[in-house]
Every structure is written in C-alpha cells, then in structure tokens.
Amino acid sequence: MGTDRLSIVFGALADPTRRALLARLADGEATVAELAAPFSMSQPAISRHLKVLEHAGLVSRTRQATARLSRLEAEPLREVTTWLARYQRFWDESHERLDDLLAALQAGEERRSGPDRNSEGNHDE
Q: At the top level of CATH, which class does the domain 3-74 belong to?
C-alpha cells in the first residue's frame, strides 16, 4: 500500500530544519549554500533535507547556469490547510461553546451576588 500525499507532506513538515528551509524559500529562490548558511550542518545535509521536501512536492529544483536553485511549491500546503480546516471549525465551535458557558456562569454569579441590601445603610444598630 502506497503512502498518500498528505502523509508524505506531514512527514516532510515534521522536521524543524525542513520547516525553516520552507520559511526561507517563501522569500524567494535560493542555492544550497544560501540555505545552509544559518545552520550548523553541511551542504550535503541540507541537500538531503531538500530531497525530502522535493519528494513531498514542497520544493522544486532548477539549474541556472552553474547554480542549482530551490523554489517553494506551496500547492501541497494548500492541501494540508484544507485538511486542517475541518479541525479549525471544530475548535472554533468548541471555543464558542466555552464562551457561552463562561457567560452563563458569570451571569449566574452576578445574580447571586447582586446588591447587598445590608450594605446600603439598613443596619440594625
């Protein structure tokens, strides 16, 4: 049984280095050397991360003269966002229910603590 594309994309996104590479590529194309600069790892290690991202469809690589440029391909991220959207609705509805419950609890507390008649000068002294 083959792995579905969404699983491959999530697998690629599971690594913080790969997420950082995608964030950098959101600013534009870059060479392996440019991508490796902020990391304390070798260019071959960055290349291996790029291959995982490329396999997931998140990165494409092209040659420009002697440079090999990597470019962000965002379409798979749209698929992830679509998949996650239904869970966003779940959380939104859960938060709305929580807001309603808190409002009801606060309204009940205000009714119970209402104005204290003894504090308005009706003391038996």
A: mainly alpha
